[in-house]
Amino acid sequence: MPAVRWGIGAGAVVVLVATGVWAMWPGQVDARLWSEVRPVIEARLAAENRGTGYGGTVPALEAHWFCRAEALDLDDRGGEVRAGVNTLCVEYGVRDGSLVECGAGQVPQVLRLARTADGGYRVVAREEAPDGAGNARWTKDHFGRVGSAALGRPMSAAALESAARTRFGLPANAPVADC
């Protein structure tokens, strides 16, 4: 990351270098790159959540995790991509013609992806904010003040509900109930 310089007084120069924070203003994400890495990120999130929710303990629900990610920052460094994302994962199942929500979580994460031989990407590392006291500090260190503020907004589950209804063969207006 390049240094930023300001002149102060007669010839004095102060150099500030950002360390440890790779955050951009929200919305400044390369749309082409995001369209390539987003499906890989979301698939990895869903796979990692498999079997972790209540729905997985009740086979009749046929529960499945659905995840979405919103990019807060994206940095391509010659074959490795760092993606700072806000994620929402929801576990849905089906009971009596209704979609049931069995678990959910919204978590900021940083993923690193590497380019594969076929030109795609694979996740090589993933970090998420710890629970408890270290959460705020981790979030600020990884997303800066602007990114941290963006993480405070709740993410909509509407697209995930729609995908779940499709997966379970339910009508678009099928109600959502608690597990």
Describe this structure in words.
The protein has 179 residues and is α+β, with helices and mostly antiparallel strands. Helices cover 27% and strands 38% of the residues. Strands 3, 4, 5, 6 and 7 form a five-stranded mixed β-sheet that branches. Strand 4 and strand 5 form a beta hairpin. The longest helix is centred in the first third of the chain and has 19 residues. The N terminus is likely disordered.
Question: Termini separation (Å)?
Answer: 47 Å
- The proportion of residues in beta strands is 35-45%
What would you call the quaternary organization? single chain
Shape label? globular
Secondary structure class reads alpha+beta
Number of helices: 3
Task: Provide the residue-averaged pLDDT.
Answer: 83
- The helix/strand order is EEHEEEEHHE
* Helical proportion, percent range: 25-40%
Radius of gyration: 20 Å
Low-confidence stretches: 1-27
Number of strand elements:
7
Largest sheet: 5 strands, mixed
Summarize the structure.
The chain is α+β, with helices and mostly antiparallel strands and 179 residues long.
